[in-house]
Specification:
The complex is a heterotrimer of chains A (302), B (394) and C (296).
Chain A (H helix, E strand, L loop, with lengths): L1 H21 L2 H27 L7 H18 L1 H23 L4 H25 L5 E2 L6 H23 L2 H11 L1 H6 L4 H27 L1 E2 L1 H4 L2 H14 L6 H16 L4 H18 L3 H5 L10
Antiparallel strand pairs in A: 1-2
Chain B lengths: L1 H21 L4 E7 L10 H16 L3 E3 L2 E3 L1 E7 L4 H14 L4 E2 L5 H13 L4 E3 L15 E3 L5 H14 L4 E7 L2 H16 L3 E8 L7 H10 L3 E4 L3 H14 L5 E4 L6 H7 L6 E4 L12 H12 L7 H19 L3 H10 L1 E4 L2 E6 L2 E2 L6 E5 L2 E6 L18
Parallel strand pairs in B: 1-4, 1-5, 6-7, 8-9, 8-10, 10-11, 11-12
Antiparallel strand pairs in B: 2-3, 12-16, 13-14, 14-15, 16-17
Helix pairs in contact in B: 2-11, 3-4, 5-6, 11-12
Chain C lengths: L6 H28 L6 H19 L3 H29 L1 H4 L2 H24 L12 E4 L2 E4 H23 L1 H11 L1 H6 L4 H24 L9 H15 L4 H21 L5 H15 L13
Antiparallel strand pairs in C: 1-2
Classes of the chains: A mainly alpha (302), B alpha/beta (394), C mainly alpha (296).
């Protein structure tokens, strides 16, 4: 299994590294947003795909990372700011994860959404209280530098999800997804495993958030905590297939491609197609592209 | 459904390709605008005005490029109210579409976001619907702002207008949005300096759906002036609920929305006496181009131009047009021209100091009966401030 | 602080709350009978609002009449959604295992499609019209007539729905289905028909609420989403699938929001609402007003 997928992945990574040599800034920008979505969706799968705890608020980690990033960037420089952003998101996940992960099913979905919105409004109030109305990040890195860093994060997120899915932790998480009570009975440390997955799935989105602020050089809370980001992540994962690290490549690639073709002239048409795709995949191909078209879902080992 | 969309899209693209092949060497001007998303509701006047200008110029035989008239062709994309997307679009416009000139996107966030792009490619662009003191942090040279309502100028102007009209107490309601909060931060010290007492000072979220609790406080405080730094949705809400609560202050200010034609259409007589933000009026006799612009615009759209966004958008087009007439399409020439020359616009002469419009004064408009009057500062006023009459019963 | 004791504030709280009651009712009905999470619910409010707006603008038809057309149209959309999509979902064994999650995604897809179709058809210019716009003064209290009308209509409609659930044969069938699905089938309830009915009533009431709102608020293609959120908050407060609890919770949220804001600051409105929402989910997911414990 590893062998069959390692080579194409390495080829894809090499090709991705080569993009800037043949493409202009615009295409690098497109590749950057593809890398961003892959990084975010891979992270989401580590939690929601494996455990079945569907997070509809993953933007909270992205937004928090963006906020910490912009606070630190001018003080300690980009590298530490991005690291700090990842750390902050991870710590935040640990702090809220314990109570939040006791809530299941549709309640967890709504809780994560509510949590993200709650944090958005807290940050808005804090910023207004500080007399900050928006923040600028001038003289940040070039799109090329950003591309390589985010590409690195996408690769890291993919590797993380890939190896976790095949580790003891991964089997424990899938066991929780299939039947949490049973998993607990046979001795899976359920609470610990869920919390570990939650924290691991938060770090990279945090770092990506900090980097994407550098991309637009502008920080405004309602933009970096936009719930659309969470929705897009879920849609990409569903379309790609959410049980494994391969899914997001196809899901993200398809949607980014679709959006490139359509956004410029017909953004509504793009959104409508997105909705139709989502409906079609849920009803007809719940395993996503990887589950359906490649028709070899990963077997769950006991 | 899907098929039809794709087909019509492909047909559209083919048509566009055919059209561009036919036209005789047009000047291609690119921009991004928010047609969908958070800001979509506010971008209409800017977009309409760009197109109005293009049609006008093309009707005159084309854009004067150093003496040669060439037709204008727009290349524009929807940035979906996402500044990150605006960055991508301007990169695409410059590197892949290879447009000859640029016009600005809508709103402060997008302006700031694309400032890095125009700087990197040394591509001069005249901004319009952006205002923030943070803009001055941007490196001057490739981006200029036509707005006259920079927060640090606009805040004090409001305080001066209140003082001059003998208004001594105010209620200040501010949505938590960058420009509004920034204006307020410069207004507060100016009020203090002018001995105007702040009786109510509240912030509210932009998504507010009910202002009753705020307005009860305002009513109890009974101030001379109510300043609401609102955007279209909350301006509308204020209009409805201030009337319901019987807010009787003689000076009632809403910030954005009141200059647009739907506002007067929707509220009719209730708008009489409302003060708002704006620095243009067709009635200032010294601005010779103002009234003809107003008339032509009204003729084409069957409604008055937006006194704020339409005026700003048109000014930035005029400045670009005049710079290109002298310097051609050469970027360095255009940059030199815009940074040093004085331009004759519908809003009077404009000269830039750094990134900022240094000539047009920050000012206030008031709706008086059916007309829109500049009431402050006296140097450009077209009428005197009048106390807001009582809200009509229906 | 006098503001707290004002009639004006109480009136505002009741108007806000009564709209929440209507919007949340439909969401609860569809969840209670079928365990489907309808995140496209607010979009029915939007459609209802546009129906009334266009009928008023084009033909001068009163929204108090066109609200019936709006309700009928959205109810028909509900039936269509059920027959076209959700019957299939409910019949698929694999999908039913994770019914809530899958229904949420399906409805989300529907929501995107509806919002963007509306945005293509009507563009995103905010629209509004004036109807029953006089301010009636009762002592110190000023009331815009359309807000009063909305309050009266929601009051009557809520009463009708309560009576329907209590006495009408289909109302009882809906309740039976919510309380015990298997038993309901055994005693001969036509589950299929009751489910369609739930969709129709749920969507129709949302459309009607939209028609009422159109008199008071600006209409845009994306106005529905905040109502979806509000409906979810209400339903969580009242207990998922608990209809009477949800109606009480709608009023409660209106009061909580209006008075909470008056006591603190409007800038804390969203923090307050989401704070309560999160707290209830963490501490008491069966709802503040729900009696029985739900299986999480």
């Amino acid at each position: 299994m590893i062998g069959r997928w390692t080579i194409p992945l390495i080829v894809a990574l090499a090709a991705a590294c080569g993009v800037p040599f043949v493409a202009g800034d615009y295409l690098i920008g497109v590749a950057l947003s593809l890398a961003m979505w892959i990084a975010l969706t891979e992270s989401w799968i580590l939690l929601s795909g494996l455990t079945g705890y569907v997070s509809l608020g993953h933007v909270v980690f992205y937004g928090l990372g963006a906020y910490v990033g912009i606070l630190l960037w001018g003080e300690v420089g980009g590298v530490l700011a991005v690291g700090g952003a990842g750390l902050a998101s991870g710590v935040f996940a640990l702090a809220v994860g314990y109570p939040a992960l006791r809530v299941r099913g549709p309640y967890f979905v709504m809780l994560t959404f509510g949590l993200a919105e709650f944090c958005k409004y807290i940050v808005i109030d804090v910023e207004a209280g500080l007399g900050q109305f928006s923040r600028l990040l001038l003289g940040g890195p070039s799109v090329l530098q950003l591309y390589y860093v985010v590409l690195g994060l996408a690769a890291a997120a993919t590797a993380l999800t890939f190896f976790v899915a095949r580790s003891r932790l991964g089997y424990a998480l899938r066991a929780i997804r299939e039947n949490e009570e049973a998993a607990e009975t046979v001795g899976v440390p359920v609470a610990f495993c869920k919390l570990a997955a939650f924290a691991l799935s938060a770090i990279i989105p945090g770092m990506v958030g900090a980097l994407m602020v550098a991309r637009s050089s502008y920080f405004e809370p309602s933009q970096v905590f936009d719930p659309i980001v969470s929705f897009t992540i879920v849609t990409m994962a569903i379309i790609g297939g959410s049980d494994d690290a391969r899914g997001p490549f196809l899901g993200a690639a398809l949607l980014v491609l679709l959006s490139e073709i359509l956004w410029a002239r017909a953004p509504q048409v793009y959104m409508i197609l997105l909705g139709i795709l989502l409906i079609a995949f849920v009803l007809f191909a719940p395993g996503g592209i990887t589950g359906r078209l490649l028709s070899r879902p990963v077997k769950v080992k006991p | 459904m899907k098929r039809r969309w794709l087909l019509s899209l492909m047909a559209g693209l083919a048509l566009m390709a055919a059209a561009s092949a036919q036209a005789a060497d047009p000047v291609r001007i690119g921009f991004a605008i928010s047609k969908t998303g958070l800001f979509a509701a506010g971008t209409g006047s800017q977009f309409d005005t760009y197109n109005f200008w293009k049609d006008q110029v093309n009707a005159r035989g084309g854009l004067d490029v150093k003496g040669v008239k060439r037709p204008i062709e727009f290349v524009w994309y929807d940035d979906q109210s996402d500044p990150g997307k605006a960055v991508q679009i301007y990169e695409k416009l410059i590197t892949s579409d290879k447009v000859d000139l640029l016009l600005a996107p809508w709103g402060t966030p997008a302006h700031i976001a694309v400032s890095g792009v125009v700087e990197r490619y040394k591509f001069p662009m005249v901004g319009d619907s952006a205002a923030s003191v943070k803009l001055r942090e941007l490196k001057p040279g490739n981006l200029w702002f036509t707005t006259a309502v920079m927060p640090d100028r606009f805040g004090p102007v409001i305080a001066d207008a209140l003082k001059a009209n003998g208004l001594k107490t105010v209620a200040v309601l501010t949505p938590q949005l960058p420009f509004a909060l920034e204006v307020k931060s410069f207004l507060m010290p100016a009020l203090k300096k002018n001995d105007i007492e702040v009786k109510v000072n509240e912030e509210y979220p932009p998504s507010i759906k009910d202002m009753t609790s705020l307005l009860i406080n305002v009513k109890n405080a009974n101030p001379d002036a109510v300043l609401v730094f609102s955007y279209p949705a909350d301006s509308t809400l204020y209009m409805k609920q201030a009337r319901e609560n019987g807010i009787a202050a003689p000076f009632q200010f809403v910030m954005v929305g009141a200059t647009e034609s739907w506002f007067t259409k929707q509220f009719g007589a209730a708008t009489d006496g409302i003060v708002t933000m704006g620095h243009w009026s067709p009635k200032v006799a010294a601005w010779k181009k103002a009234q003809p612009f107003f008339d032509a615009y009204e003729k084409q759209f069957h409604e008055a131009p937006d006194y704020l966004d339409s005026a700003l958008a048109y000014m930035s087009c005029e400045i670009l047009e005049q710079a290109v007439a002298k310097a051609g399409l050469d970027k360095d020439g255009i940059r030199k021209e815009i940074s040093t020359e004085t331009f004759e616009t519908i809003n009077g002469p404009v000269k830039f100091n750094g990134v900022e419009n240094a000539t047009t004064p920050a000012s206030l408009l008031q709706i008086q009966g059916k007309s829109m009057e500049l009431i402050w500062p006296p140097s450009i006023a077209t009428a005197k401030f009048e106390k807001k009459p009582a809200w009509p019963a229906n | 602080m006098q503001a707290i004791l004002s009639w004006q504030l109480l009136f505002a709280a009741l108007v806000t709350g009564s709209i929440y009651v209507l919007v949340a009712l439909g969401l609860n009905l569809v969840y209670g009978t079928m365990r489907l999470l309808n995140v496209a619910h607010g979009d029915m409010v939007m459609i209802g609002a546009y129906v009334s707006y266009w009928l008023f603008t084009l033909s001068g038809l009163s929204p108090l009449l066109s609200m019936l057309i709006a309700a009928a149209l959205t109810a028909a959309l509900g039936a269509l959604a059920y027959v076209g999509l959700f019957r299939r979902l409910l019949a698929n064994r694999q999908l039913v295992q994770r019914l809530e999650g899958n229904s949420l995604l399906l409805f989300f897809g529907i929501s995107i499609v509806i919002q963007n179709l509306a945005s293509l058809a009507f563009d995103s210019t905010p629209r509004a019209y004036q109807y029953l716009d006089r301010v009636v003064a009762i002592g110190n209290l000023g009331i815009t007539e359309n807000r009063l009308a909305a309050l009266i209509v929601t009051g009557i409609l809520s009463l009708v729905i309560v009576l329907f659930l209590r006495f009408h044969i289909y109302g009882l069938a809906i309740k039976a289905l919510m309380q015990h699905r298997e038993a309901a089938t055994v005693v001969g309830i036509d589950v299929e028909r009751v489910q369609i009915l739930s969709f129709c009533i749920g969507f129709g009431v949302a459309g009607l609420a939209g028609a009422l709102l159109s008199m008071m608020e600006q209409i845009t293609p994306f106005m529905g989403f905040p109502f979806t959120i509000a409906a979810f908050v209400v339903v969580i407060l009242g207990g998922l699938g608990n209809l009477l609890g949800g109606m009480a919770a709608g009023l409660l949220l209106g009061i909580l929001e209006t008075y909470g804001v008056a006591l603190t600051s409007p800038s804390l409105r969203s923090v307050l609402i989401y704070g309560v929402f999160i707290l209830v989910l963490l501490v008491r997911p069966q709802g503040l007003l729900g009696g029985k414990r739900v299986v999480r």
